[in-house]
Amino acid sequence: MVRVEPIQIGSVTVIGVEVKLPKTTLLAVTTERGYIMCGALDVGLLNDKLKDRNIIAGRAVGVKTLTELLEAPLESVTHEADALGIHPGMTGKDAILMMV
What we know:
By secondary structure, the protein is α+β, with helices and mostly antiparallel strands. Helix content is 24%, strand content 35%. β3 and β4 form a beta hairpin. The longest helix is centred in the last third of the chain and has 8 residues, at 92-99.
């Protein structure tokens, strides 16, 4: 099952995506500039093999809901996210607000 929902963060609306798969759930919250995602995100791949795309993204691990994804500290971020001031340890919500 795939669920897409608007998420209000202050005056900003972003999009939450939840994909239920066997034995796992993929979670993402996206803006027009970038996104955060659950532990399935391969930040190394984005930084290395897809570096020409300049993807702004962050990864949080151990999250099971979109709310947890927004509240959790980011475990890793892409080089492009880092250049915007988005760093590991900041919450997903704070990172998303910097991507708007």
